[in-house]
Fold these 2 entries.
Entry 1:
Amino acid sequence: MADNATHRYISSFFLVGIPGLQDFHCWIGIPVCLLFALALLGNSVIIITIKLEPSLHQPMYFFLCMLAVNDMALASSMAPKMLGIFWMDAHWIDFDTCLTQLYFIHTFCIIESSLLVAMAFDRYVAICIPLRYTTILTTPMVIKMGLVGMTRAILMVLPCPLLIKRLPCYTKYVINHAYCEHMAVVKLASANTLINRVYGISVALSVMVWDLGLIAASYTKILQAVFRLSSQNARSKALGTCAAHVCTILVSYTPALFSFLTHRIGKKVPPSIHIIFASLYLLVPPAVNPLVYGVKTKQIRDRVAGLFFPSKKISGN
């Protein structure tokens, strides 16, 4: 009876923001806003550049376009609410809205990981079996790989909000976080959450181990192929095509891994540090990825320079 009486009693949650740093929320909102704006602007430029430049209509850049769209979606799923908390004291969020935000954030994170695997495979084929590159990575194959990654993410994350909704009793409503995160919401339930915890950690571990394993395997093969090249110039050129992707992997996985570990085993880590890192791993990659590819990829760099500085392009020619 007690469980029935309290079932779904909490209709809204209160997002604290960053515990212990509430007095600085207005200032913390500035870098969040800048990162969000940079993510939207930078990824839009990448998409427009690839669309306008016929020489960039290649599998590598199609994957980059998918990554840019996903990055904008990821940043948009959490940054507006964070800014609402920091600047307008809009701390309350409806139960179902919270679950929706939770679902999309984790879905976009897994899609991002899938795209990094696809991009690693693209580099593997380009460097290790270049003669078969155009026959393996056709446009339909690129689309199928993108759809498989998206479907995997949708199906893996879907049970998370469904399992949360099945929990019979919510008597706590304060989420010590800046957005709705799976474990932060699960901890509020006054019920047995073993299934939720096991499933959550299983998804996180399987995605990280599987995807990082595939990326590591791809780059092991790539390095073996590169070091078999006799020309130093050919080695440098081959490794140069991977530089942007490696930077993106480091930017995406390093804060994500730290956040994952501190949330589950870092009991002595202050909550504010954990939440800052949890926010950074969602905001920094979408903002930094366009800069990395813009700087490291000559075709994109030249095309963007031509778009914004046409006179310089003419004089350069």
Entry 2:
Amino acid sequence: MAISHAHATLFSRTSLFLSRNSCRSSLAFCIPFSTFAASSSLPSDKLHRNKWRSPVASVLELGGVKIGREDVMRDDPTNNVPDTIFSKLGMQLHRRDQHPIGILKNAIYEYFDTSYPNKFDKFDDLCPIVTVKQNFDDVLVPADHVSRSYNDTYYIDAQSVLRCHTSAHQAELLRRGHTHFLVTGDVYRRDSIDSTHYPVFHQMEGVRVFSPDDWEASGVDATSYAAEDLKKCLEGLANHLFGAVEMRWIDTYFPFTNPSFELEIYFQEKWLEVLGCGVTEQEILKRSGKTNNVAWAFGLGLERLAMVLFDIPDIRLFWSNDERFTSQFSKGQLGIKFKPFSKYPPCYKDISFWINESFTENNLCEVVRGIAGDLAEEVLLIDNFTNKKGMTSHCYRIAYRSMERSLTDDEINELQWNVREQVQSKLNVVLR
């Protein structure tokens, strides 16, 4: 089950997702599509070039399944996937050996390969389109949980979504007989705009299943055996990534593990949440045909850890094609400190409006991202009040900044004008 402090996932105290198929051939787990774009799929070699490029706009191939734009951005009343999100499909930063996300993934692989030789199966190319059942039901997310809302999740249609977490593949892998596995992938969440939040990020989940032969000779019960093994494993991983650091375990609650824990390390003079984990709820194992087993699961957000290990100050940088960023990192070199190359100033613009009952901040951020893209650095609520008539006003400050160049006044003014128009027409608010 994957976690990130910056992005909500299934392991969190405050939210089930704080931070966070159907194809029968291969482990793609994609929903089968009735129609595909006629053009050729994205060649795999293009995904690994030093000068990384955006994916082909009309069709992609993920997990062995072709995905056309019309398959993701459907003419369906429940579809809320914008162009800015479709453009990130197929980028697969975690599969690039010279990218900080890929370097970190490989460092974690190295730990498991050394500590558990030939034990853990690794999956990093599973299709991000999954069913609602896989994304929520299979990991025991309550039917009324906020994470299922269209405000939080990207829906393709009423029954399929862009995965919110790599945990969406857990049940299928268990049913297919895998007992030790790591799943890494890009995940999607409608979210706020600031230096640590982005609607696409990367997670890794680890699962280990035990049989009665494993714990019966230990003299402890199955749950205690699994919990002890889990903590030993993850303490070793923390030492592998961060060196000899002080650690502490925090008891917490998740609906899919019991007991549940968070691991924190004392790093750079402060306590840092590294991951969430726990002993898998028996109901999940039972549904996967493993009634006599126990298991543990952990999850971590790769951006969260990479920002700390590489001193990367803004999550948008992970998506930069600027060679001043990409050239700083090398395969196998974990923890190279990023040298900032941009000191371009931000430009602030305020927007005020009377909200309605359906207004949400995530919807506002989607509008801003759709117009400004990664030029939007932050959207911050700076003032709100309710008048005598019961009408509520919000004032947001939008920070525009390029990581690569100075923005002109004309550019900023045009962006802000378009934001104002779209906020009013799409969100049905009244500008002030």
